[in-house]
Amino acid sequence: MPNMTDYLRWRGDLRFDERPFNEVDALVLATASYLDLARVVPPRGSCSTLGDACAQILAEAQGDLSPFVRSLANLDVEFVSDLATSRRFGTLRLSGCVDVVDESRALQFAAMCVELPEALVVAFRGTDSTPNRMATNRAAMGLSWALRAMATPSKPKPDPKPSARR
After folding, report:
1. What angle do CA 122, 131, 61 make, to 5 degrees?
2. Is 19 within the bounds of a domain?
């Protein structure tokens, strides 16, 4: 069964002006957000290319990506290497890479901005495999309760001023 590495090898030579951004491209960028890019790309000010950021991670990883992958998913050296050298993704500019875990506020947030020729993609990372599972679980629980509260219809509130009868 084909996977994202196969896609990078099949379509990685095509720039976005040759083939427009599609759902699989979105999946590739969403998957790339599980790399610890905040370690190598400053959150504000300057930018880096996705290729340079991946190359730096590969150089530091020396064959073991596990300290750089924030997920239970398997991101391997092959995928990151093909992403880095791809004409389609390697030259895309990254900025705003953030990775915040604040246990005191049950906060876990990670995102990156990717500049396409005609658009800006913001890829958010969901809960991951950070060592502090308590913050991760509390953040996920808080989100699920917030979504449940939004989906639960509320009872109509009584009118504070009853209408006067004649």
Report:
1. 70
2. yes
| Average pLDDT across the chain, whole number | 78
More confident residue, 142 or 45: 45
Q: Is the pLDDT of residue 112 over 80?
A: yes
Could you list the residue range(s) of the whole structural domain that residue 55 is in? 4-144
73-84 confidence digits (pLDDT tens)? 678 899 999 999
Share of the chain above pLDDT 90, in %: 35
Residue 47 CA, distance from chain mean position: 17
Distance CA 65, CA 75 (A): 8
Tokens 């209408």, located at residue: 163
Q: Is residue 89 part of a domain?
A: yes
At CA 49, angle to CA 55 and CA 10, rounded to 5? 75
Whether residue 154 is contained in a domain is answered as: no
Query: Which range among 14-23, 58-67, 141-150 has the greatest average pLDDT?
Result: 14-23
Domain count, the chain: 1
CA dist 100 and 18 (Å) reads 36
Domain membership of residue 99 (yes or no) is yes
